[in-house]
Amino acid sequence: MLDQRRLPSEEISYTYTDYREVARAIREMVIRGAPAIGVAAAMGVALGVLKSAAISMDELGPEFAQICDTLAETRPTAVDLFWALERMKARFAELAERKTDIPEIRKAMVAEAQQIHLEKRATDEAIGRFGADFMPRDGQVMTQCNAGALATGGIGTALGVIRIAVEQGKNLHVLVPETRPYLQGARLTAWELHRGGIPLTLITDNMVGHFLKTGKVGAIVTGADRIAANGDTANKIGTYQMAVLAKENNVPFYIAAPVSTFDLSIPDGEHIPIEERSAAEVTHLHGVRIAPDVPAAHPAFDVTPARYIAAIFTERGVARDPYMHSLSALAAAAPPFSSASAR
Ligand code: MRU
Question: Is residue 343 over pLDDT 90?
Fold first, then answer.
């Protein structure tokens, strides 16, 4: 796993051999971004089963539940994490039902996690193709946080849209807000775009309104961590104010996210759990105190009401208002690839 906390100054990767290390890496943001967290959790489950000393299903069953619970307790907002765990649980139940022997279960768990990773790559490509049509032919676009390759394991969702639009010949320049306090924009999106040869300008978060008002931004595209049945969308803190300012300034605000980000079990964004992270991430920068010893708040995500979202790009097509209908139609539609090809 590439340690995203150290980017852009150092490129350090770790090899984990214990699922508890994977859980810790997710919690401590070695890896982050909704789809990447999901893939990591699936890999963590596979690792747990692979390394288990269980010799019977009576032993493996409870251990499997413990592995899944440990990984589920890492980060609460991104639904992809729970989606990936549910998928691993469903596969495990299927194998147990068929009385599959333990060595075969180990192999099948690894194959399922690898399949999830492959599907996420294909998903990003499909999202990118749908979304690219909505990017301007020429000019500036804005994003938030990092919804690129680092966040998904593919080409990224929001950055995948931008990348495919550029590959199609669109002449885009990306405005990248630094995304305080964790600086995913400054550290990760700027790094990714720069390496990919896509022109960008880094701005601070408090410049967003100014750049939207001066009228030179053609579109905004961000990722999502959880999308409720009515289209309300949780994404990195700061996304809500960006979407409101976009509407005020007639800039279309788009979400790019896989269908696995939908949480149709909740009616609206009020029900989305918002992760509270450490205040030290606000009061300190790279371990250096930048504020006096005062209370600080760090909600890691906010919820953008659906009315500010012009469209949601997914791998199965584009959802538009009324989202209550368009999201459930996409959830019921066939995926652009088969999820059974690993079996
Ligand atoms: O706290 P993070 O860095 O995991 O938050 C990431 C985001 O908010 C992303 O925009 C979102 O997960 C989509 S990533 C394709």
Answer: no
**What does the alpha-carbon distance between residue 216 and residue 211 come to, in Å, rounded to a whole number?**
7
Summarize the confidence of residues 323-338 as an average pLDDT: 92
pLDDT for the residue numbered 153: 87
**pTM as predicted:** 0.96
Q: What pLDDT is recorded for position 339?
A: 65
Task: Reply yes or no on whether 302 is catalytic.
Answer: no
Q: Which atom of ligand 1 has the smallest separation from the CA of 275?
A: 1
Distance from C-alpha of 117 to C-alpha of 133, rounded to nearest angstrom: 26
CA 299 to chain centre: 17
> How many C-beta atoms surround the C-beta of residue 242 within 10 A?
25
Cβ neighbours for 100, distance < 8 A, ≥ 6 positions apart: 108
- Which residues, including other chains, have CB under 8 Å from residue 148's CB and lie 6 or more apart? 33, 155, 156, 158, 159, 160, 188, 189, 192, 193
Which is catalytic among the residues 80, 205, 225, 232? 225
